[in-house]
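Customer escalation, tier 2.

The customer says the design service returned an amino acid string that "doesn't look like it belongs to this structure." They asked us to rerun it and document both sides in this ticket. The original structure tokens are below, unchanged.
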């Protein structure tokens, strides 16, 4: 914005879809959503992680991991709460509670 006002980020959720390539680590202090067409090769850490796409790497959430029906995780999941829809797959360990 060129009106002289400071540019302030207002988003509360990070969304990763098919047009974004991620390799390495993704760390967010807020919620993180992995879209249905996304293919991620990274470790994820966020407040809440919602996965509809494919993740190769470990997933950690401060509050909750929500694995949607189209979601796949090839790695370990750690969170206080874990929700897994029918059709979702995990190839790794899940530590919740």
């Amino acid at each position: 914005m060129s009106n002289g006002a400071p540019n302030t980020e207002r988003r509360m959720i990070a969304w990763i879809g098919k047009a974004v390539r991620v390799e390495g680590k993704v760390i967010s202090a807020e919620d993180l959503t992995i879209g249905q067409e996304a293919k991620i090769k990274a470790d994820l850490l966020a407040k809440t992680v919602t996965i509809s796409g494919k993740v190769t790497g470990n997933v950690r959430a401060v509050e909750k991991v929500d694995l949607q029906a189209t979601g796949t995780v090839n790695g370990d999941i750690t969170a206080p709460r874990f929700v897994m829809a029918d059709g979702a797959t995990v190839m790794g360990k899940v530590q919740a509670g």
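Tier 2 assessment: The sequence is consistent with the input. The mean pLDDT is 88. The radius of gyration is 14 Å. Sent an explanation to the customer and offered a walkthrough call.
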